[in-house]
Write a structure and sequence with these properties.
Two copies of one chain form a homodimer.
Chain A: H1 7-34, H2 41-59, H3 63-72, H4 78-95, H5 99-121, H6 125-150, H7 154-162, H8 168-194, H9 207-220, E1 228-232, E2 238-241, E3 244-249, H10 257-274, H11 291-305, H12 309-323, H13 331-338, H14 355-371, H15 379-391, H16 418-437, H17 441-446, H18 451-460, H19 470-478, H20 485-496
Helix pairs in contact in A: 1-2, 1-3, 2-5, 3-4, 5-6, 6-7, 8-20, 9-10, 9-12, 10-11, 11-16, 12-13, 14-15, 16-20
Chain lengths: 497, 497
């Protein structure tokens, strides 16, 4: 018996194997969005579903339960203990779901997401509903099983997969707080900005020049092109594996700013992945801590840094080099462009101030949708009402720029949206902490020295992976748990200061 | 017992599963050549190796042996009997190899092939040998095991994976025949062509225009872009899955013809795959019959059709549209360019007449290499001597354009080279048979009606998949088994007629 492989080592080997097979799934998933021709979809969906079932089977091997129990009694380092904690979390979540459900979900979401790409352009809500109903039904089935397993509410059980520790109760407080001051803040900002003229850039902006500008900006932000790529897909994302990060963007000849800022956003995700501790890649403890923390990195790049006046002063001449000099590219005007607040329909084009309204709207639809309080048919009316209430925008009949705009629901990703706004709050908290420890931070950024920011993020977030639970990581990084006051202070300083 | 799943159905389900998981491996393999950044290689090699081992484990499940025996006693259709025959073949080949060998091979070849990409440019034979020795050692280990299993010689056992039924003894006859008449034919053609001036195209040829021309030509040749793509890799290939064919080419600004003709070549492979019977995809009986038959399709496209005067007359104006009018693009001159015979160093750039010499040279090295009659260190001397003897070309010290030029050896693919020349012979035989049944074939091609060619190939080859063994398929298609006289007649007619 004493020569037996320690249970911890066996578990660790299983996760290495899962990581290796998952690598192929990640690359195929990126390919599906960036390359795959339409007739390839059915075979790809079958292949992805087969792999999802296989990985699920490996994750739910009954032998693991005994190994987890045995490993808890083995002499483990702090790191190994943290890994075992995350392994147990993964095991509990995986075992709540039967393989047949995983396979049906993979099939249904692949079909729905693929059809959605055309249905969105065609504004075809009725067609979408056909494929979406089974996706929702399966998500509710999953939520019920996870709820039984964890004791959380159904929606919270889904959210827990992305943001462990976060609950609807805590969100009611946080989003409730935001709902109190956000509408007034938006009005004040719109009022202030109405007196600040802004010059719009004049296109067209050649796609090749945009691509080059995006890659140059990614290099400035430290993205390692020897270990990743930038490609094009309908809905930008950051995929692949930590060793080979696949970022995507989309280009429009009439607007380069949205793809540039989107690329800066995804670069934050990419650098988090590229800088996870390499020796732990594949182990649960080596993974990014949570989706809100992931968003806190993309938003640190896009918002805290990307719209920082000091950074903008460095970006401005790069735009002139890419597209020729324009009055719109003068630093002060560029800064105004990047911080322009508009009550619009599209979440991914939304500014830093109104973005939270888009998230709260989605949260207020998907939570009751999963809890069974409303049905898929009820989405458009809820959407239209909330858009009017929160942003004063009329979206009736415009499904394309309404509930069909995001990939999340067609791909069955419920419980994710809150992470975006939580990420914005964390990123404001990170920069507040940086300024406390580096009072000259803004001077450094203005001097083009971004190293201090990257070093702080690497030290406090990237290198920590999942060693600590979220509140503990946040305490260690910033001296307190999530505190939305930093987000409000940031918006007031930047937009009304 | 009577309610048990028929053994045949269980086997069939296993192969569907293998096809689905193999789909992800194929796409990742294409990605490795077409997209992957350098630092991704180690993780990718580990992932591919893990998957290779998994597929091997599924293929060698001991339960299959009993299923194969039981299925033989079940009432099966002709198609199912053929599938069972191919399943048995696959099972025997797979079970000759232990999983550890498969995994070591996958690791060693991924490493060797990746390093080779840089080593080839650097003409670094010594560096290449370091990685190649383990690849060769593992190939010999595999050959020995397959030889024990099949009773074939070691080299024949490797060749049998690509070209079932072909042996060194048969090749000695076929290549021996070619060796007798080829050198004299080359001399006569060179002599004849020395009196026929040819105008070279004047570059540079913009890569974007080349890409557009290649895609247009692929469309003309019936490639379905809704079910496939064209991308760029160092060594062109046709990969992916039948439902999503991934072709690659490479572009050089100073020479568009090699990439255009390479693309026409790969399009032949691509159409074979795209037109395999869709209901049988994934089953062994639904796969392309053999590699020589695969090459017979690429060479039907590239040589029989691509250099056909009637086809060339249609290609000529497309070149003028792509790059502007040039004297070189006049049909008669273009035809001379495409049929120009040169004793050169590079196989993939070789013309239809000297190509067989390149293949015979490689066959005469890799056969004794696998049989243990020579070592990796002996390759350059053998190479140099054979190049001098067969083509009068001095390759001493030029490893880049010598034994480092092909991806086959670094990727451990021994026994494949003969298929190229066998394919050329089959393609000549197909067109001879077409002309017998359609005496106006050349007039049709000249009129731009390629449908007759595609219909014949679809009917006789593509749709037949692996229903018949090679000799049987060849008999049914052309009324005789492989007969190299058609190849000789084709070369004499086209080059001396």
């Amino acid at each position: 018996m004493s020569t037996e492989t320690p249970a911890y080592d066996a578990l660790s080997a299983t996760y290495t194997r899962l990581h290796r097979l998952g690598h192929l799934q990640s690359i195929a998933s990126w390919d599906q969005a960036a390359n795959m021709p339409p007739k390839g979809n059915e075979a790809r969906a079958a292949a992805m579903s087969e792999m999802a079932a296989l990985l699920h089977r490996l994750r739910t091997d009954p032998a693991m339960q005994a190994q987890i129990t045995r490993a808890a009694g083995e002499p483990l380092s702090l790191l190994q203990q943290a890994n075992l904690r995350e392994i147990r979390r993964d095991w509990l979540a995986s075992n709540a779901l039967p393989e047949s459900l995983v396979q049906r979900q993979s099939m249904a979401t692949a079909r729905c997401e693929h059809a959605w790409r055309a249905q969105r352009s065609a504004n075809d809500w009725a067609g979408f509903l056909e494929n979406f109903r089974p996706v929702l039904a399966l998500a509710r089935e999953e939520a019920a099983l996870l709820s039984d397993e964890t004791g959380l509410s159904r929606y919270d059980a889904l959210m827990d997969r992305f943001e462990p520790g976060m609950t609807s109760a805590r969100l009611r407080q946080i989003f409730g707080d935001v709902r109190q001051w956000l509408p007034a803040l938006i009005r004040r900002v719109l009022d202030k900005q109405s007196g600040e003229p802004v010059i719009q850039p004049v296109g067209p902006f050649a796609v090749e020049a945009q691509r080059h500008l995006c890659e140059r900006t990614m290099r400035l932000l430290g993205f390692d092109f020897e270990a990743g790529r930038l490609d094009v897909s309908t809905h930008p994302f950051c995929g692949g594996v930590p060793e080979d990060v696949r970022m995507t963007t989309r280009f429009r000849e009439d607007n380069f700013l949205s793809s540039l800022m989107g690329t800066i956003h995804e670069t934050g995700h990419g650098r988090y992945e590229q800088n996870l501790p390499r020796g732990l890649v594949g182990q649960p403890v080596g993974q990014a801590r949570s989706m809100a923390l992931h968003e806190s990195q993309s938003l640190s790049f896009e918002m805290q840094l990307g719209s920082h006046p000091g950074f903008v002063a460095h970006l401005a001449p790069m735009l002139a080099e890419a597209f020729g000099a324009q009055a719109a590219f003068e630093p002060q005007n560029l800064q105004r462009l990047l911080t322009r607040v508009t009550a619009g329909t599209i979440r991914v084009d939304a500014d830093e101030v109104t973005y939270a309204a888009h998230v709260i709207l989605r949260y207020e639809i998907e939570r009751p949708l999963i809890e069974g309080e409303i049905e898929a048919e009820d989405i458009p009316a809820r959407w239209d009402a909330a858009m009017m209430e929160l942003l004063g925008v009329d979206t009736r009949g415009n499904f394309r720029d309404g509930p069909l705009q995001d990939v999340h629901w067609p791909s069955g990703m419920f419980g994710y949206f809150p992470c975006y706004s939580l990420g914005a709050m964390y990123s404001a908290q990170w920069f507040a902490a940086m300024r406390r420890s580096m009072p000259d931070l803004d001077t450094r950024i203005a001097a083009g020295d971004l190293g201090a920011v990257f070093d702080w993020l690497r030290d406090k977030v990237w290198s920590q992976a999942s060693l600590w639970q979220t509140d503990e990581l946040t305490m260690r990084a910033s001296g307190e748990v999530l505190n939305p006051a930093h987000f409000r202070a940031h918006l007031e300083q930047r937009y009304l200061g």
